[in-house]
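Structure tokens please, single chain.
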Amino acid sequence: MRARLLLITMALLVVGIVGSDAIVLGALRRHLVERVDRQLMPLAQLMARLEPSTLGPPGADVTRQPGGGLDLVAEMAIVYFDPAGAVITSVHTGSALPRLAAAPRSAFTSGNWRAVVVARPGGGSVAVAGSLSEVNGTVRRLQLVCAITGLALIGALGAAGWFLVRAGLRPLRTIEETATAIAAGDLTHRIPGGGHPGAEIDRLTAALNGMLAQLERAFEARGQFVADVSHELRTPLFGIKGSTELALMGGASSPVEVERTLRRIDTEAGRLAALVEDLLLLARLDVRGPVLDLAPMDLRTLAASALGDLRALDPGRPVRITGPGGVGEGAAAPVLGDEARLRQVVVNLVGNVHAHTPPGAPARIGVGRVGSHSILEIADSGPGISAAEEDRLFDRFHRGDASRSRQNVNVGYGLGLAIVRSLVEAHGGRVELVRGGGDPGATFRICLAGWEDSQKL
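Here you go.
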């Protein structure tokens, strides 16, 4: 990359130098030629008033030694023409005459000569030409100076550019070294800062360090997740293995003991199957999201289902349906959703109420509209959730405070609320823990876009 950047820079520099030299040399040559023209024209007008015999007899072609004369003109030629265009006489200081025509003409170039043809008052014309050798020599000398200066400048700037580009790319080498260290397994490695605040490299460094911190946390979370999964899988597997070994060793001799052992195996197998199903669901949600079968529905259907589930789990529990926040009665809450997936959300929240509140403790189901959102609430009157637990409430395998768990109730594996959040967010909504709603326990609120608003998405 350094070589490529330097090559591009040097190529642009060469193009710039060559282009600027060409413009300067072209302008200089035009200026010098204009100076020659300004000297030839008065001389031609003067020679037009003189007789050709001034230069020599008719038909003479006189060669004279150069003498003092015009600036920038080392060689000159003067030719008289008769009205028919034939040469009357000529004089020149060079070895040969340039090609000149008799027709009057303003300054023009003929070979290495610059010439002017002026009409004579008595008929005919006179041509005065000056050599451009001095002009060309001056331009060539300046060309040589420009070439030498340009080569020296390119060499000096090329050497300086090599070191400057190397210094400028040093932060990228640091990033490369950091990436190499991370690839080798050192997830704690970070790119050192110290650049100019607001510069591109400094912003890139900050963005990469943020990404690396997230990767480190993700790897730590993955490791913790694997450890939690291993622990949770081990518990029912050990139960199944222990009960099976007991049965094989003849520890269950009576039919009652055999049935008890088989029920224990069935219970642990059911727990294991439920855990695997939850893990597979979360994996599908993480990888590609759920496949939702969206259709218009009313959250009151889920509220009625939650009411039936709570009464079935605890017939003595008082349950009422209200509006959101416990105000008024339940009202219509149309949404565009997958009823099966949202019913799964409700089942998890209802199971949470059953697992974490005393038997017979009142519960509330709120349903209705708040602004443009359709709301479904599941509220209990249990011991509530501490502020310290709230941040980790929806983390996987987080079971919360043990004081919220009922005695002799299977409280699950800490995946229920994680599944709830994933499914609700897949519907474009959110689930939150509401505080200060008047309920002494915990209130989980599901907010989804109303059916009218979901049509706009």
